[in-house]
Design brief:
With about 350 residues, the chain is α/β, with parallel strands linked by helices. The protein folds into 2 domains: about 290 residues, TIM Barrel (Alpha-Beta Barrel), CATH 3.20.20.70; about 45 residues, no CATH class. It is built from 13 helices and 12 strands. α5 runs parallel beside α13. The longest helix has about 35 residues. It is globular, with a radius of gyration of 20 Å. The structure holds flavin mononucleotide. The site of flavin mononucleotide has 20 residues, from loops. It catalyses: 2-hydroxyoctanoate + O2 = 2-oxooctanoate + H2O2; a (2S)-2-hydroxycarboxylate + O2 = a 2-oxocarboxylate + H2O2. Belongs to the FMN-dependent alpha-hydroxy acid dehydrogenase family. Its cofactor is FMN.
Length: about 350
């Protein structure tokens, strides 16, 4: 069921082609290692970094080790389906692509390549949308089937590598959905902030509040998903404001360092909404068994951020496809080993919390 993937010649730098062309990539960590070899350091650091001391970045990964699987046997797993429904749409896999900016730094085809890979793999891709009526209307016209409102970014987190690297976006990149696009290249770094962080600070709205969710609900009939909720209290508010889904996320640990890992936050959010709306998760997902654990704790779908960027850097659209297929194969195998033939059969009793970590 699982597959090994041969890396194709990389997009960046001819020297890598010689040394790396025959490397076999067996798991998502291999893709990250390979991307690190290919990408300019400033770009790799921008993608990889978490905020401040990166406690939460480490914990997003470690949280998956705190749960162990309790497999059931003798269940005829000759056929396993990883298919799920998300907001009424049938997906081949519960693994989908999250919103991460600037795919063009990883590969010239950028977001287009990632979106094509999603389509080919039968899953969906999230695009970041500013909550303005104009953008909403454009999304509606373009046939988008849901809006995602990121709610954990009143300010931008401090990613120390970006400060150290004095990170600036390559001059050919544009923020096509924003009018003030050009200012992004007019901001210089300071002692404490990268130029990029300064630009983002200028464009964010720290007064974003529940009334904006109410407003958004009133101007569109598209399903709304709030991205960045970590507590039962906010999950209940979200239900009260009529949203259709919650993405339990800490922004890939790039905002408030020290917040709890998303896997640790998931059970209380799932309990608080008690089936009234859909709940998804992102952050630190590296393996099929991670996806399995998140589903067992009540997530309906799982989004991945950085692994997509690593796939894109390694091999463009095909690299993203390989990442998605690898995770799906790993999930399928883990389901079979656990005695789960369908995603519905993945239930909380599949897990036990370890006491030895
Ligand atoms: C390079 C990068 C850029 C991101 N840009 C955005 C963004 O523009 N909007 C947003 O809501 N989340 C953004 N995120 C957060 C992701 O949507 C997602 O929450 C996170 O990457 C999931 O964690 P993972 O990378 O461990 O899979 C970004 C994450 C990364 C790594």
């Amino acid at each position: 069921m699982s597959r090994c993937i041969k890396a194709l010649p990389p997009f960046y730098g001819p020297c890598h082609e010689l040394t790396m062309a025959s490397q076999v990539l067996t798991c998502l960590e291999d893709f990250e290692k390979r991307a690190k070899e290919i990408l300019p350091k400033t770009v790799f650091d921008y993608y990889r970094s978490g905020a401040d001391g990166e406690q939460t970045l480490r914990d997003n990964l470690a949280a998956y080790s705190r749960w162990r699987l309790r497999p059931r046997v003798l269940r005829d797993v000759s056929k396993v389906s990883t298919s799920v429904q998300v907001l009424g749409a049938q997906l081949v896999s519960p693994v989908a692509v999250g919103a991460t900016g600037f795919h063009c730094m990883a590969h010239p085809e950028g977001e287009l390549a990632s979106a094509r890979a999603c389509a080919a793999s039968g899953t969906l891709m999230m695009q970041d949308q500013d909550a303005t009526e104009q953008l909403v209307r454009r999304a509606e016209r373009a046939g988008y089937t849901a809006l995602v409102l990121t709610v954990d970014t009143p300010y931008v987190g401090r990613r120390l590598d970006d400060v150290r690297n004095r990170f600036v976006l390559p001059s050919h990149l544009r923020l096509c959905n924003f009018k003030e696009d050009d200012t992004i290249h007019g901001v210089g770094p300071t002692q404490n902030d990268s130029a990029f962080a300064l630009f983002v600070k200028q464009s964010l709205n720290p007064s974003l509040a529940w009334e904006h969710v109410h407003w958004l609900r009133s101007i569109t009939s598209l399903p709304i998903i709030l991205k960045g909720i970590l507590t039962a209290e906010d999950a209940r508010e979200a239900v009260n404001y009529g949203v259709d889904g919650i993405l339990v996320s800490n922004h890939g640990a790039r905002q408030l360092d020290g917040v709890l890992s998303t896997l640790d936050a998931l059970p209380e959010v799932v309990a608080a909404v008690s089936g009234r709306i859909e709940v998804y998760i992102d952050g630190g997902v590296q393996r099929g068994t991670d996806v399995l654990k998140a589903l067992a704790l009540g997530a309906q779908a799982v989004f991945i951020g950085r692994p997509v960027l690593w796939g894109l850097a390694v091999n463009g659209e095909n690299g993203v496809r390989q990442v998605l297929e690898l995770l799906q194969d790993e999930l399928s195998l883990a389901m079979a080993f656990s005695g789960c033939r369908t995603v519905k059969e993945i239930t909380p009793d599949l897990l036990t919390r370890t006491s030895y970590l």
